[in-house]
Design goal:
This protein is α/β, with parallel strands linked by helices. The chain is 39% helix and 16% strand. It is elongated, with a radius of gyration of 25 Å.
Length: 366
């Protein structure tokens, strides 16, 4: 079948090509009756806009590039889903690129997306330092928002969960359930989520035990590291393992079960992110829930700040309030656990999140 054109719709509706173009593109107001007539003709003929031609006319492709560290991390697909929904509602399509946790590959993916003339970029950087040059260069060309991780002050707008607040919720919960010998199991490197969660543990754990801030084991954001960390830690018998993400916590739970340790009777285990696996673990995992839908909505809002090439003004950092989801893995020995959500008192939600000093966000899922 021949492609249906604007001229065909104009002939079928009895309107000029210019009027049909205004109705279908929504660029200028047109009378309600005329608009209904044009749309009915377009629907009857099966008209579909030529996106390539539209891009050439408007110098806008209607696409946003999204670069992820590693799509296999269960936290990221849920975030991608919410981002796609938020951007689709604005008439934008998403081009996805996975860089397999490699900053060199990441820079190549960014360059390739810019070569495809994306209108904007969303990025979860691999590493705060090693990603900075490529991110800063891209931010000078198109609107760019960092999600979940950052690349240092002033590089780009960013939106992330408040990692320090999330860790504070975990420590308060463990203190309330009588835990006094915690250990932090996190990830090495300079990814900002890893750094922020570790720093928050060091700052708050002394309230449980003066020596607790020294009890830290670092590896990576993986199930394998969670299992290995238990082998290193269990001889000292901590009564709580505070894990930097849910994958680490899942590995820890698996290895503790193999060793015959009672969770939560002998040791509590907590995670961070609330991926689907958390509720399916045995026992179900207490964790910090990230507001994934709000992260996506804020990222879309920040992308709308201005067109490419315009002065964006001061860079903005938005921090969103987390929730603590209490499940069986951290119940006190004297009580049965239930699944409840605990918010951060007084913390701003996404619609009122203040633009604070530029503090990096990081991959909340590892």
């Amino acid at each position: 079948m021949a492609e249906v054109t604007l001229r065909d719709v104009a002939l079928a509706s009895g309107c000029s090509i210019a009027t049909v173009s205004r109705v279908l593109a929504g660029t200028r107001p047109v009378g309600a009756e005329t608009a209904r007539t044009v749309r009915a003709a377009a629907e009857r003929l099966g008209y579909r806009p030529n996106q390539v031609a539209r891009a050439l006319r408007s110098r806008s492709t209607g696409t946003v590039g999204l670069v992820l560290p590693q799509i296999t991390n269960p936290f990221f697909p849920s975030l991608v889903r919410e981002l796609e929904h938020a951007l689709h509602a604005e008439g934008r399509a998403v081009l996805l690129a996975d860089c397999d946790d490699d900053p060199v590959t990441e820079a190549a993916r960014i360059h390739a997306l810019l070569g495809r003339q994306v209108d904007a970029l969303l990025l979860i950087p691999v590493d705060e330092r090693r990603s900075r040059e490529a991110v800063a260069g891209a931010a000078a060309r198109v609107p760019l928002v960092l999600l979940d991780r950052g690349c240092g002050p002033g590089v780009a707008d960013s939106v992330a969960v408040d990692n320090a607040a999330g860790m504070a919720l975990v420590l308060e919960h463990l203190a309330a359930t009588g835990r006094r010998r915690p250990c932090f199991v996190g990830a090495a490197g300079t990814a900002s989520a890893a750094v922020e969660r570790r720093a928050a543990y060091e700052a708050g754990a002394a309230a449980l035990d003066p020596t607790a801030p020294e009890r830290i084991e670092l590896g990576d954001f993986s199930v394998e590291w969670g299992r290995a960390a238990v082998d290193r830690l269990w001889p000292s018998r901590p009564d709580a393992l505070i894990c930097a993400n849910d994958l680490i916590a899942a590995g820890a739970l698996q290895r503790l079960r193999q060793l015959g340790a009672k969770v939560p009777g002998e040791v509590a285990v907590t995670g961070f992110d609330d991926i689907p696996l958390a509720g399916l673990a045995d026992p179900a995992l207490t964790t910090v829930r990230q507001p994934v839908g709000e992260l996506a909505a804020e990222a879309a809002r920040l992308l709308r700040r201005g067109p490419a090439g315009a002065d964006p003004g001061p860079r903005r950092t938005v921090r969103l309030a987390p929730e603590l989801v209490v499940r069986a893995s951290s119940a006190s020995s004297a009580s049965s656990a239930s699944s409840v959500s605990v918010g951060v008192p007084g913390a701003p939600g996404p619609s009122g999140a203040p633009d604070g000093p530029c503090a990096e966000a990081s991959r909340a899922g590892g």
